[in-house]
Design goal:
By secondary structure, this protein is mainly α. It has 4 helices and no strands. It has a single domain, classed as Non-ribosomal Peptide Synthetase Peptidyl Carrier Protein, Chain A. Helix 1 crosses helix 2 (48-61) and helix 1 packs across helix 4.
Length: 100
């Protein structure tokens, strides 16, 4: 988990995401770029692997991602942006609750 003061950058998300994919799906991260299609990873959007990927991402980045948004992701860059947005929403929500 990351501290509330930590800002999650695109490069950090990309590196962590590629490590997660490589470790859990046996896909060489050197073959993945931000332009890589999810379909190119051979992770079927209607498989348990895709659900596993969502759960791994939510755990690693300590975020909640809407299933409908996740299923509409086409490329790694879309996934990175989705993670960043979810992280920023969580961070703002956490900061608001501390002000009360």
């Amino acid at each position: 988990m990351m501290s509330d003061k930590h800002t999650l950058g695109i490069d950090e998300i990309m590196n962590d995401l590629l490590d997660l994919i490589e470790k859990n799906f046996a896909i060489d991260k050197s073959n993945i770029s931000d332009d890589t299609s999810i379909d190119d990873l051979s992770i079927d959007k209607f498989s348990t692997d895709f659900v596993d990927l969502l759960m791994l991402i939510e755990t690693r980045f300590d975020v909640n991602i809407d299933n409908d948004e996740f299923i509409n992701v086409d490329k790694i860059s879309d996934l990175i942006n989705l993670i960043k947005t979810a992280y920023e929403i969580k961070k703002k929500s956490s900061n608001k609750s501390k002000v009360k």
